[in-house]
Specification:
Blueprint lengths: L1 H4 L3 E5 L2 E4 H17 L7 E5 L4 H12 L3 E4 L12 E4 H7 L16 E6 L9 E5 H6 L10 H7 L4 E4 L6 H12 L3 E4 L7 H6 L3 E5 H13 L9 E5 L5 H11 L3 E7 L3 E6 L20 E3 L1 E6 L6 E2 L3 H7 E2 L2 E10 L5 E6 L3 E4 L2 E4 H8 L5 E11 L3 E10 L7 H12 L7 E4 L13 H5 L2
Parallel strand pairs: 1-9, 3-4, 3-5, 4-6, 8-9, 10-11, 11-12, 23-24
Antiparallel strand pairs: 1-2, 6-7, 7-16, 12-13, 14-15, 15-18, 17-18, 18-19, 20-21, 22-23
């Protein structure tokens, strides 16, 4: 991939422009430095690096020597005293060494990456992906791209990267960008929409919360987003009303996908597929991904196989070759996957199970509701009770009694919210996902 790029720019960082040949040289220097410092296949390395060419070279160089690569979560090292810390100082030292080509040493059963989840449903978990699974991934191999990814690849001329290159999403779509002949562009603050304009970005990853803010900003004070061709919505499902609004304001640039750190991409809905009847879906799973609906189980060639130092959760989630997503959903006759909630997002009212996701989906049917978030609270009479928070569509005022009646009529009286609170926006967790725990703490 980098050899084929040659003199083409593959990474842009401010005034720095790194070609494929130069990036390959940097990778060889990192791999040589790791080996000189005694790192061999199976050893652990932990990256504490920014978003720059050296960070990409460090990740790839560590893969060359067959190391187990992990990022740092909130500046805290993983529970593994044997891992080498790779920081800017160490990488800069290696860059002074020779760039002799290095032989890859990754062993199929060894762990290649420990990918950390966002922690939105609890403490972050380290998803362990082996070298065999990483090699089976589609991103670097155009002949493996499913149709939705082929559509996306044509739009990745200038892909914004931020946060951490050791994250699943950033690196997966970064590698896809390079395979598609594009350039990874380091995004510097401020963020959306300024970064799109400043860097002439054609593509980027965005959370649901930040997408909603971008749409609000464009309505209030629009800027020229003419370069933009693809926004990959990540982290949580996008309600149909919000997806429709994003398409109206931003144009046909939104790719609505579904995936997990444990599995990578599970399904994706492209702008060309966003007909009115498809907006409530997360797209069509590729043919090489097996999906069992109900409580969704997934099997992919590139999935993780365990959690780092967590045998109990490993046994609960990685079951007989399948990954238990703990999401609820259904595959329609049209082949589209529709999510219906989370298996653990349950409120027990008078001993009856009420799924928060089901209530949220009913609430956003009302045209005055753009977003809905449902939580449970203890109740002396019913055990727990349902409480809803709704973000209105622009210029609308939700009718709270009508919303309560709509839920009761659709799902039954136990699901009817005991309270419906209108809010301007949902609080966001550090991951950028909606923070329902913050609502529960109010």
């Amino acid at each position: 991939m980098l050899r084929a790029a040659g003199s083409r720019i593959v990474f842009e960082d401010g005034e720095r422009f790194v070609s494929g040949d130069e990036m390959l040289s940097m990778i060889w220097r990192v791999a040589g430095g790791l080996r000189s410092d005694g790192v061999v296949a199976g050893d652990g390395v932990v990256l504490r690096l920014g978003v720059n060419p050296e960070a990409l070279a460090a990740i790839m160089g560590a893969f060359v020597v067959g190391a187990r690569v992990s990022g740092v979560r909130d500046q805290v090292l993983p529970d593994d005293a044997g891992s080498m810390l790779i920081d800017d100082e160490r990488v800069n030292m290696w860059m002074k060494g020779p760039d002799n080509p290095q032989e890859p040493a990754g062993r199929p059963r060894d762990i290649a990456r420990v990918l950390w989840t966002s922690g939105s449903t609890g403490a972050p978990k380290g998803c362990c992906q082996t070298y065999a699974s990483m090699s089976a991934a589609w991103a670097a191999h155009p002949d493996r791209w499913p149709p939705a990814v082929r559509s996306l690849a044509t739009r990745l001329q200038r892909y914004l990267v931020f946060g951490s290159l050791s994250s699943q999403v950033m690196l997966e779509y970064g590698v896809l960008t390079l395979a598609a002949g594009g350039t990874m562009v380091a995004a510097r603050p401020p963020g959306f929409p300024d970064a799109i304009v400043r860097h002439r970005a054609t593509a980027g990853v965005i959370t649901v919360g930040k997408l909603n803010q971008l749409v609000r900003d464009q309505r209030a004070k629009p800027v020229d987003l003419g370069s933009l061709r693809a926004l990959l919505v990540s982290g949580s499902p996008l309600p149909p009303g919000r997806l429709r609004e994003a398409l109206d304001v931003l144009g046909p640039v939104v790719f609505h996908g579904y995936g997990q750190t444990e599995t990578g991409m599970i399904a994706m809905l492209t702008p060309d597929e966003m007909t009115p009847s498809a907006l409530d879906s997360v797209g069509r799973p590729p043919v090489h991904i097996d999906v069992r609906d109900g409580e969704i189980y997934v099997r992919t060639p590139a999935q993780a196989s365990s959690y780092w130092n967590d045998p109990e959760e490993t046994a609960a989630v990685f079951v007989n070759g399948w990954v238990r997503t703990r999401d609820l959903g259904a595959l329609g006759n049209d082949g589209l996957l529709r999510l219906t909630g989370r298996a653990r997002d349950v409120i027990i009212v008078h001993a009856e199970l009420v799924y928060a996701g089901a209530v949220e989906r009913v609430l956003v049917i009302d045209p005055t509701v753009a977003e809905a978030y449902v939580i449970g609270r203890p109740d002396d009479t019913t055990g727990e009770s349902v409480h809803a928070y709704v973000v209105p569509t622009p210029g609308s005022t939700p009718d709270v009694p009508a919303l309560t009646h709509l839920v009761a009529k659709t799902l039954g009286d136990p699901a009817a919210p005991s309270s419906v609170t209108v809010i301007d926006h949902v609080p966001l967790a550090p991951s950028g996902k909606p923070d329902k725990q913050a609502l529960a703490g109010e």
